[in-house]
Amino acid sequence: MNVPVPKIRMGFVGGGEGAFIGKAHRQAAALDSRFELVCGAFSRDARNNQDTGAAQGLPASRCYSDWQHMLDAEHALPADRRMELLVIVTPNHLHAPIAAQALSAGFHVFSEKPAALNLSELLPLKKLLESSDRLYGLAHTYLGYPMVWQAREMVRDGVIGTVRKVIVEYPQGWLSQDVAGQGNKQAGWRDQPEQSGLGGCIGDIGTHAFSLAEFVADQPIKQLCAMLNTHLASRQLDDDAAMLFKMADGASGVLIASQVCAGEENPLKIRIYGDKGGLEWRQEDPSSLIHRSIDQPLRILRSGVGQPWLCEAATRRMRLPAGHPEGYLEAMANLYGDFASAIRSNVEGNDAPGVPGIEVGLRGMAFIEAVIANHRGDTKWTELVCHP
Prior knowledge:
The chain has 388 residues and is α/β, with parallel strands linked by helices. The chain contains twelve helices and 14 strands. The protein is globular, with a radius of gyration of 21 Å.
């Protein structure tokens, strides 16, 4: 007889009504019925906070006025009632401080990226994490797509040969105008260094392109040569970036990230070429993976349960037969699913298999700092340094 597996009790910091990413996290966590939302400090606005909790069926007593109060109150509850996992969906400057206190209180942590404002803030968090028995994950959602895993497996299997070139781009258009000046809160805090960090566009979406390139190519970026732009005079941080990079095993690449490409939505795309062929994946058509070969016709691999030519890592992240698209929420749900499996199996260490962890966070911060240093300095190539 199968023994029921209890749902993982989770709490949220941030993600009040009107915040896109908080709602996306709640929907993704609910998709496979492995989590139960039991508490939250959703917003500094008392009405928003209570309304968000009420909409999720929470009693007023579990809708806390601030995250410090929530951590203290939840820690004081009996073990079978308190939250087990804290989800952090706040502006960037709160990610590391909240994560540190949550880990110290004995909670697992799943955080929006970036992991911190800078490397100097993140390194103590890494040390704290390693001294705990808790799990830590980052919401690099695009690494949850099944066909991204398929692409990585094909690269690992040598299907395209030795990797030579990686081209990754993420153009958005939502900051083409001064939407912060028109009252858009999401645009507003992203342009405040004290809340966002030193990177604007490069921290917001450039890190997604960076992590996708390293993940699919299965090798780290070692050096880069970057250019940043700020196209609106009212902005403090970059809204456009382009760079060349060199990878550890000899491949070279190009990364473009921009939020001033008027009319664009979220067309994150990666192309990777070896000496035998190439692969192409597009976030706006996530069910398809294009395979080019030097001696065979072009193939388009399609996702879907039961496709025998897809790898196990891809198929186990699918829920529907071919022809039924799975998208952003399902990709995020895959991260939540892997995190749930790690919690319930009492996995050793601090990483949940299949979920970006603290090392991915360190590399993301090193990327941001290397881009900014290279843009501001006179050195042609800047090394990515994760540890002092």
